[in-house]
Amino acid sequence: xxxxxxxxxxxxxxxLGVSYEGRPRALLAALAPIVDVVxxxxxxxxxxxxxPHRALLDDLDExxxxxxxxxxxxxxxxxxxxxxxxxxxxxxxxxxxxxxPRWHSEHLGFTTVDGSFLGTMPALPPTHEALELVIARSRxxxxxxxxxxxxxxxxxxxxxxxxxxxxxxxxxxxxxxxxRLLVDLHNxxxxxxxxxxxxxxxxxxxxxxxxxxxxxxxxVWYDGRHLDVHSGPVADSTLDLLDVALAHATNLDLVLYEVxxxxxxxLGVDTVVDQVATLRQRVAx
Length: 285
Fold this sequence. Notes:
It contains eleven helices and twelve strands. By secondary structure, the protein is an alpha/beta fold.
């Protein structure tokens, strides 16, 4: 692993956040007083009518009225060649009308092909064609909503053939759009553990000055593969990687613990709170 260098941000710590999928309410009540940002997943708040559950928005207004928000989407399908998900954009319109976020983030993947939902999100290959498509759509999103659109690489258990390295793809994307990147450290570890990424090479090649947000999570191993199922505490190896990232990311504004809503009952609210406290000590010792 690349050696940690002195903090290039001049001692300015990034904000600390947590993801929230609308459940349980007790989690939001426990976290709102101790985090700077709540990252809301619009897809997880939506009802059958395609609009957010009003009660879930009311919970956020009641329990976290002064906490900053970011939106982290799943359903845009920015990499679908035939067109992205217009239903997701309508959902996003409703969310922006409710409360404007600091920024919006999405995944560098696709969830539909020929109008059919895949039930998963394959990663985009790092090709010039994919890069051109995503750059254009990223610019469109930023112009439409007046907010920075940060894009996150997607971990994949399969080989990712392409024409450039993942870091080069991300560097060019950020440079051409003017938007910063969202880097999920656990996703990087999954790709590295699955033999699909050299972590030292990635850390050395990525332009960390273009990283605006970092995610941390704990996943699972299944059938010899490390999967990015964000359902557990952050591993020590991921925290060590955070130290490296903090030393290099000069324009970082947010470090966030990401956990699936359905994982919270098994983990317990207290465990999630402890994870946030651990990150607080790591980010601003």
